[in-house]
Protein backbone atom coordinates (compact mmCIF):
# COMPACT_ATOMS: atom_id res chain seq x y z
CA UNK A 1 0.00 0.00 0.00
CA UNK A 2 1.20 3.53 -0.78
CA UNK A 3 1.56 6.08 2.00
CA UNK A 4 -0.97 8.38 0.30
CA UNK A 5 -3.53 5.56 0.34
CA UNK A 6 -2.85 4.82 4.01
CA UNK A 7 -3.20 8.52 4.89
CA UNK A 8 -6.61 8.70 3.20
CA UNK A 9 -8.26 5.45 4.37
CA UNK A 10 -11.10 5.60 6.89
CA UNK A 11 -9.62 4.93 10.37
CA UNK A 12 -11.04 1.39 10.68
CA UNK A 13 -9.60 0.34 7.32
CA UNK A 14 -6.26 1.99 8.12
CA UNK A 15 -6.15 0.06 11.39
CA UNK A 16 -7.01 -3.19 9.60
CA UNK A 17 -4.11 -2.53 7.24
CA UNK A 18 -1.76 -2.58 10.25
CA UNK A 19 -3.33 -5.46 12.18
CA UNK A 20 -0.90 -8.12 10.90
CA UNK A 21 2.15 -6.04 11.95
CA UNK A 22 1.48 -6.67 15.64
CA UNK A 23 -1.61 -7.69 17.60
CA UNK A 24 -1.51 -4.64 19.89
CA UNK A 25 -4.66 -2.58 19.24
CA UNK A 26 -3.47 0.44 21.23
CA UNK A 27 -0.43 0.70 18.93
CA UNK A 28 -2.48 0.21 15.75
CA UNK A 29 -4.93 2.94 16.83
CA UNK A 30 -2.13 5.36 17.82
CA UNK A 31 -0.34 4.95 14.48
CA UNK A 32 -3.61 5.58 12.64
CA UNK A 33 -4.48 8.57 14.83
CA UNK A 34 -1.18 10.29 13.98
CA UNK A 35 -2.04 10.44 10.26
CA UNK A 36 -1.45 12.05 7.83
CA UNK A 37 2.28 11.30 7.58
CA UNK A 38 4.36 13.60 5.41
CA UNK A 39 6.74 10.76 4.46
CA UNK A 40 7.38 7.04 4.96
CA UNK A 41 10.30 7.95 7.21
CA UNK A 42 7.92 9.90 9.45
CA UNK A 43 5.50 6.95 9.59
CA UNK A 44 8.22 4.47 10.48
CA UNK A 45 9.73 6.84 13.06
CA UNK A 46 6.34 7.39 14.74
CA UNK A 47 5.57 3.66 14.67
CA UNK A 48 8.92 2.91 16.33
CA UNK A 49 8.41 5.65 18.91
CA UNK A 50 4.96 4.33 19.81
CA UNK A 51 6.39 0.81 20.12
CA UNK A 52 8.96 2.05 22.65
CA UNK A 53 6.08 2.39 25.11
CA UNK A 54 5.12 -1.29 25.09
CA UNK A 55 4.94 -3.02 28.47
CA UNK A 56 4.62 -6.62 29.52
CA UNK A 57 0.84 -6.78 29.03
CA UNK A 58 1.18 -5.49 25.44
CA UNK A 59 3.84 -8.11 24.84
CA UNK A 60 1.71 -11.00 26.13
CA UNK A 61 -1.21 -9.80 23.96
CA UNK A 62 1.05 -9.79 20.90
CA UNK A 63 2.58 -13.24 21.51
CA UNK A 64 -0.69 -14.99 20.75
CA UNK A 65 -0.20 -14.07 17.10
CA UNK A 66 3.28 -15.65 16.84
CA UNK A 67 3.92 -19.38 16.46
CA UNK A 68 6.86 -21.00 18.24
CA UNK A 69 10.17 -20.76 16.45
CA UNK A 70 10.64 -23.93 14.46
CA UNK A 71 6.94 -24.71 14.30
CA UNK A 72 5.04 -24.00 11.15
CA UNK A 73 2.31 -21.40 11.64
CA UNK A 74 -1.06 -23.00 10.91
CA UNK A 75 -3.98 -21.05 9.55
CA UNK A 76 -4.52 -19.08 6.39
CA UNK A 77 -4.45 -15.54 7.87
CA UNK A 78 -1.91 -12.98 6.73
CA UNK A 79 -0.03 -13.23 10.05
CA UNK A 80 0.36 -17.00 9.70
CA UNK A 81 1.62 -16.58 6.14
CA UNK A 82 4.12 -13.94 7.27
CA UNK A 83 5.33 -16.16 10.10
CA UNK A 84 5.86 -19.06 7.71
CA UNK A 85 7.82 -16.77 5.38
CA UNK A 86 9.87 -15.25 8.21
CA UNK A 87 10.66 -18.63 9.72
CA UNK A 88 11.43 -20.35 6.41
CA UNK A 89 15.12 -20.56 7.36
CA UNK A 90 14.40 -23.24 9.94
CA UNK A 91 13.59 -25.54 7.03
CA UNK A 92 13.14 -29.28 7.36
CA UNK A 93 16.20 -30.08 9.48
CA UNK A 94 14.64 -32.54 11.93
CA UNK A 95 17.58 -32.44 14.36
CA UNK A 96 17.49 -28.64 14.50
CA UNK A 97 13.72 -28.68 14.97
CA UNK A 98 14.10 -31.11 17.87
CA UNK A 99 16.78 -28.91 19.47
CA UNK A 100 14.53 -25.85 19.04
CA UNK A 101 11.58 -27.70 20.54
CA UNK A 102 13.60 -28.63 23.64
CA UNK A 103 15.07 -25.14 23.99
CA UNK A 104 11.62 -23.57 23.54
CA UNK A 105 10.32 -25.83 26.32
CA UNK A 106 13.18 -24.74 28.64
CA UNK A 107 12.54 -21.09 27.79
CA UNK A 108 8.79 -21.30 28.42
CA UNK A 109 9.43 -23.12 31.72
CA UNK A 110 11.77 -20.33 32.83
CA UNK A 111 9.97 -17.22 31.53
CA UNK A 112 6.36 -18.38 31.34
CA UNK A 113 5.78 -17.25 27.74
CA UNK A 114 6.79 -17.95 24.17
CA UNK A 115 10.35 -17.20 22.98
CA UNK A 116 10.13 -14.36 20.45
CA UNK A 117 12.87 -13.45 17.99
CA UNK A 118 12.96 -11.52 14.71
CA UNK A 119 13.38 -14.59 12.51
CA UNK A 120 13.79 -12.88 9.14
CA UNK A 121 17.40 -12.98 7.99
CA UNK A 122 18.44 -15.47 10.67
CA UNK A 123 19.29 -19.12 10.17
CA UNK A 124 17.76 -21.78 12.37
CA UNK A 125 21.14 -22.33 14.04
CA UNK A 126 21.46 -18.61 14.82
CA UNK A 127 18.02 -18.60 16.42
CA UNK A 128 18.85 -21.68 18.49
CA UNK A 129 22.05 -19.96 19.68
CA UNK A 130 20.09 -16.81 20.57
CA UNK A 131 17.48 -18.87 22.40
CA UNK A 132 20.19 -20.56 24.47
CA UNK A 133 21.98 -17.26 25.13
CA UNK A 134 18.80 -15.53 26.29
CA UNK A 135 17.91 -18.45 28.58
CA UNK A 136 20.60 -17.02 30.88
CA UNK A 137 18.86 -13.61 31.11
CA UNK A 138 17.00 -12.45 34.20
CA UNK A 139 13.25 -12.03 33.59
CA UNK A 140 13.66 -8.24 33.47
CA UNK A 141 16.52 -8.41 30.95
CA UNK A 142 14.61 -10.95 28.89
CA UNK A 143 11.45 -8.82 28.76
CA UNK A 144 13.53 -5.95 27.35
CA UNK A 145 15.18 -8.21 24.76
CA UNK A 146 11.88 -9.81 23.75
CA UNK A 147 10.18 -6.40 23.39
CA UNK A 148 13.05 -5.22 21.19
CA UNK A 149 12.55 -8.29 18.97
CA UNK A 150 8.81 -7.67 18.79
CA UNK A 151 9.52 -4.09 17.69
CA UNK A 152 11.87 -5.36 14.97
CA UNK A 153 9.27 -7.81 13.65
CA UNK A 154 6.57 -5.14 13.74
CA UNK A 155 8.64 -2.53 11.90
CA UNK A 156 9.77 -5.07 9.27
CA UNK A 157 6.13 -5.97 8.62
CA UNK A 158 5.10 -2.30 8.52
CA UNK A 159 7.88 -1.46 6.05
CA UNK A 160 6.66 -4.30 3.83
CA UNK A 161 2.99 -3.25 4.08
CA UNK A 162 3.20 0.49 3.57
CA UNK A 163 6.00 1.51 1.26
N1 LIG B 1 8.25 -17.14 18.13
C1 LIG B 1 8.69 -16.29 17.18
O1 LIG B 1 9.72 -15.62 17.33
N2 LIG B 1 7.93 -16.18 16.03
C2 LIG B 1 8.26 -15.35 15.00
N3 LIG B 1 9.31 -14.56 14.81
C3 LIG B 1 9.20 -13.92 13.58
O2 LIG B 1 9.99 -13.15 13.08
N4 LIG B 1 8.05 -14.34 12.97
C4 LIG B 1 7.43 -15.22 13.82
O3 LIG B 1 6.35 -15.83 13.64
TrEMBL record:
A GO MF label: 2-oxo-4-hydroxy-4-carboxy-5-ureidoimidazoline decarboxylase activity
Domain Oxo-4-hydroxy-4-carboxy-5-ureidoimidazoline decarboxylase: from-to ranges: 7-159
Pathway of action: Purine metabolism; urate degradation; (S)-allantoin from urate: step 3/3
Swiss-Prot/TrEMBL keywords: Decarboxylase, Lyase, Purine metabolism
Pfam family, one: OHCU_decarbox
SUPFAM superfamilies per the UniProt record, alphabetical: UraD-Like (SSF158694)
GO biological process, any: purine nucleobase metabolic process
Reaction catalyzed: 5-hydroxy-2-oxo-4-ureido-2,5-dihydro-1H-imidazole-5-carboxylate + H(+) = (S)-allantoin + CO2
Enzyme Commission code: 4.1.1.97
Name of the protein this chain belongs to: 2-oxo-4-hydroxy-4-carboxy-5-ureidoimidazoline decarboxylase
Lineage summary: Bacteria, Pseudomonadati, Pseudomonadota, Gammaproteobacteria, Enterobacterales
Amino acid sequence: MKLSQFNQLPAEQAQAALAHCVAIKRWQQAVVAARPYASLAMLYQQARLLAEGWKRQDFVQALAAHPRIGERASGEGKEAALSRQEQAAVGADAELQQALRLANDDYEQRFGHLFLIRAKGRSGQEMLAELRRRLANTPAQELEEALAQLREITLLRLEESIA
